[in-house]
Amino acid sequence: MVPDTDKAYIAGLFDGEGSIHFKRGPEKKKKHKGKGYRISNSLRLSMEITMTDQSVLMWVHEVLGVGTLTDKPRKGKRVDGTPYLKQYRWRCTFRDAYYVCCLIWPFAHTKLPKIQQVIEHYTQQALKGNVISLEEYKMVKRDVR
Questions:
Q1: Would you tell me how many other CB atoms lie within 10 Å of the CB of residue 129?
Q2: CA nearest 46: which of 14, 86, 84?
Q3: What pLDDT was estimated at residue 130?
């Protein structure tokens, strides 16, 4: 159970430093058997927060319990020749992103349209019977391993 104060803080952090990528469209993929390619109607869904303060992202990762925390590669140098600060990225995808969107939805402002788009997508899928709860999904994943 995540307290409302933590949800509000994460929503504000996400509004300022985060991004959501939600794209549906055709993608060229290799065929399962044999040679050649096939066209697939795919969905790409991810949300991330990138910043230089690793401790904040570690806290976000611990509180939410989903996603990954990685180093983000630095590219180039500043105009004065000094290197950029090291950046860190917390990122989650698909159902984990849906879970986070549901948590921060009441507190979000800037990213609210994209958050609603994610929630609406999974709500429509649930009505068709295509989505199971996050708890059921995690239980299935544990059983497979």
A1: 7
A2: 14
A3: 63
